[in-house]
Write a sequence for this structure.
């Protein structure tokens, strides 16, 4: 990977802050920075062929429709889905999961039915199911997190004996970086007669995904965590499941015919895409995929692994620092969350900000993970293609300043 | 920004004077900042004229929320609760000795005032009412 070229491609890294310090961005698990090619793709659409899609007869609209649908095909190829009918554009991972809960869940889950979640989930893969459970009387079971920061697969096997209808789990923890054995978990769910929704928000940006090989029934992810713009995400679903599901939002584009008292839904994938979509964002998303494809996802994962390995090694040397999650550096995502026993994460983040280092402080939209680890909050550093070992050195130097201010000795 | 971690604030954070609980207390209230999980409880003893005779805070949180609680309680001993109802955001920033704070950290700084007012009125205060 050409680190210098990558930094060159991201305008945000060219501007030092008011103290002359370059940006050390360690919050890519929240959202990534955007390369120039993504920004230009969106800009070019607005400047030269801005038009609504799917309905204009004129040339401009055809251009916009083609660009929008080209991204759908890129995503299909990216995750190795069978057909673009299985690629539904949403606002983000959260909306994708809500779509499944609302449409599939309402139709197929009833009082007394069981479904399995994990203690490791982001709030977006918990709250939609809590809402549904409240409404329909569905029983929620949870796969616990072990002390090593992994999912307890023994308990998972026991929970599957309750014949759940659905299992929902993350493909990579946004707090701990854990990569659960998704393929094994999915096949176990299928053997027990359950469907499987895989939360790919942290997975797709960082590693090669073959959704047909994994065999997940539903799969959700967001563009903005993989160099693309905010406001657009994807729901992948197996075609037979999507066909049988009722529409989610109603409105334009998702219909074939509308009468005063009735409508007929459009074909897939449009059936689930009501209203004018995020057209520029779809086009930017396509450029983001092109950018990652040119680097190659194996190279992305290897680069992040090297930085994560170094970060864990150096962080462990700091007195009073405790890492939340697996300490292994192989087969692990790049999110590294930690606590310092003498200082609150908010203070850590604020002091690091003075050095132009951006980290996340708080519960990272995963309060149950923190409850499980008996901490109120943590500080998280997460790495991506534009980070280097130097960023880890800056983080460690910043934490030394925190120690000077807050350390007891 | 350098101001935020001045000796005074760090000192009140590391060695708080009013940390603890009062059992029994005349007024007591607790609340949290859901953003960071900071949790604060304030106990007050008040005489028949409505003057605060003793105060303590407990809970956990960042340096800003803890130091602001300690500074706030130090400032209200002997004051009448009717006067305390008039305390504002600016009073807290004055106590901390800082002119302005970003919106996220402002919630940390104002948590103690929110809890104090909750104890005075017996209900939670919205941030925008402070």
């Amino acid at each position: 990977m050409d680190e210098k070229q990558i930094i060159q491609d991201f305008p945000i890294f060219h501007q030092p802050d008011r103290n002359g310090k370059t940006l050390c961005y360690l919050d890519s698990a929240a959202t990534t920075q955007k390369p120039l090619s993504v920004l230009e793709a969106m800009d070019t659409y607005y400047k030269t062929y801005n038009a609504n899609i799917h309905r204009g007869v004129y040339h401009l609209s055809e251009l916009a429709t083609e660009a929008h649908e080209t991204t759908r095909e890129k995503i299909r190829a990216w995750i190795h889905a069978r057909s673009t009918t299985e690629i539904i554009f949403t606002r983000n991972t959260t909306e994708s999961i809500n779509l499944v809960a609302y449409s599939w869940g309402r139709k197929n889950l009833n009082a007394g039915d069981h479904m399995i979640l994990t203690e490791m989930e982001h709030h977006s893969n918990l709250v939609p199911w809590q809402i549904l459970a409240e409404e329909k009387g569905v029983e929620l079971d949870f796969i616990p997190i072990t002390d090593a920061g992994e999912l307890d697969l023994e308990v998972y096997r026991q929970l599957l004996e309750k014949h759940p209808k659905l299992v929902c789990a993350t493909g990579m923890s946004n707090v701990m970086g854990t990569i659960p054995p998704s393929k094994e978990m999915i096949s176990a769910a299928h053997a027990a007669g359950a469907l499987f929704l895989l939360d790919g928000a942290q997975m797709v940006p960082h590693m090669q995904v073959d959704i047909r090989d994994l065999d997940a029934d539903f799969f959700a992810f967001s563009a903005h965590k993989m160099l693309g713009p905010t406001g657009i995400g994807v729901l992948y679903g197996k075609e037979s499941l999507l066909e049988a599901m009722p529409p989610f939002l109603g409105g334009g584009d998702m219909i074939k015919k509308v009468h005063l008292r009735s409508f007929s839904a459009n074909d897939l994938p449009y059936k689930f895409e009501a209203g004018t979509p995020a057209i520029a964002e779809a086009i930017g998303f396509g450029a983001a995929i092109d950018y990652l494809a040119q680097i190659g996802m194996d190279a992305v994962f290897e680069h992040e692994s090297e930085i994560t390995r170094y970060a864990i090694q150096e962080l462990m040397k700091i007195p009073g620092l405790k890492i939340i999650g697996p300490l292994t550096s192989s087969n692990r995502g790049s999110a590294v969350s930690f606590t310092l026993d003498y200082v609150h994460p908010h203070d850590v983040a604020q002091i690091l900000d003075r050095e132009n280092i951006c980290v996340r402080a708080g519960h990272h939209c995963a309060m149950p993970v923190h409850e499980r680890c008996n901490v109120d909050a943590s500080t998280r550093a997460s790495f991506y293609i534009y980070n280097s070992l130097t960023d880890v050195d800056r983080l460690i130097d910043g934490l030394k300043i925190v120690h000077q201010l807050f350390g007891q000795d | 920004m350098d101001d935020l971690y001045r000796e005074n604030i760090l000192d009140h954070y590391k060695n708080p004077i009013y940390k603890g609980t009062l059992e029994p207390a005349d007024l007591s209230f607790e609340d949290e900042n859901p953003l960071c999980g900071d949790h604060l409880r304030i106990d007050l003893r008040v005489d028949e004229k409505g003057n605060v005779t003793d105060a303590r805070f407990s809970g956990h949180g960042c340096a800003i929320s803890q130091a602001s609680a300690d500074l706030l309680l130090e400032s209200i001993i002997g004051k009448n609760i009717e006067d305390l109802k008039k305390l504002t955001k600016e009073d807290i920033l004055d106590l901390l000795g800082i002119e302005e704070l970003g919106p996220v950290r402002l919630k940390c700084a104002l948590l103690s005032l929110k809890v104090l007012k909750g104890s005075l009125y017996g209900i939670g205060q919205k941030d925008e009412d402070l």
